[in-house]
User: Fold GTPase Obg from Desulfosporosinus hippei DSM 8344.
Amino acid sequence: MFYDRAKIYVKGGDGGAGIVAFRREKYVPEGGPSGGDGGRGGNVVFVGDEGLRTLVDFRYKRHYKADRGDNGMAKNMSGRSGESTVLRIPVGTVILDDGTGEVIADITEHGQRVVVAAGGRGGRGNARFMSNTNKAPTLSENGEPGEEHWLRLELKLLADVGLVGFPNVGKSTIISKVSAAKPKIADYHFTTLVPNLGVVDVEDGESFVMADIPGLIEGAHTGAGLGHEFLRHTERTRLILHVLDISGSEERDPLEDLRIIQDELKLYSPALAERPVIVVANKIDIPGAEENLERLKGELKESYEIFPVSAATGEGLQNLIYHIAKVLPDISAPTIVSLPDEHRVTKVKSDKRFEIRKENNLFIVEGDEIEKHVKMTFFDQEDSVYRFQNILKAMGIDAALVAAGINEGDKVEIAGVSFDWV
Assistant:
């Protein structure tokens, strides 16, 4: 099955915890603190793989987590770092944040690596807290939590040439004749339900990749037909072959078909309308096609190159292939992938380090920095609690709570942990 969209959850590994330990050797008086740091959590990494053509692997498994780091050990030994989780995805996949629509990465090359969820750093052991004023610290840190995201993956096929046109104009037959692709072919609309890729061999080792883009009709950019599902697969093509039924066997005007599809491409992405286009006048073997061909040439000769072919008999296909191979080296690949409006987002970043909101007698403090400190603090260690109180004061949270009207005995909640205000 062809799957070109997926939604998955990824989480980097949590860092390992630092520990409290002291050297206790027979002839080493006052050995001092020796608690090691925790290991770093593993990352979740995407790697582009040109051998993959679909996102089907993400249909059945949607949650991916990297290994957490090991805890620190005595004698200043750090814990082992967690193993990263490496996920292979097809070249041509766009990775987006599912919540904001922000584009995180665009995988365009084989072997390209992108870290989508970084692992947390390991917590520090007590040896790291020794100072001139505190020779025997009894505090350590928990590991930093790894990053976590819901991601949306969208595959946009990487092809040199894209076949577009109304249903039943012969796109699938053309790609089956010039490559080894075996699409389903039948004499009814929307036979082709998924894009098909084929490698076209020319000569002397030359080749190019051709894609059959199904389902384009009028209104495709708004969701009509199948076009809204597959228009994005045309975004990366360098050359567009617009296939027309020049015989008019579907009782449509070929000139009007060309105008409608070109308008759909422009409405979806203005950059698409500027791509080089070759008009392929198919079904030239059917009676009545010659008249439409002459009319087409008269109208479009100055705007487009026109190649009359018959996909059924193979007439004209070889000339078309040689011409494509000749012009492709001079056409640069699109460098910027345009995205539909739903992917264009404006991120507003707050300058505030934290925010306080009140619910009855509960004061809720929110902010990435302070929430991370909560998760990395061992509240069963007296020195760790004292350090955390100093962090609250240094960040200005104590003063902000007083200004918000907090009273003795009120509750404060940070990252799901409740504290009594005294």
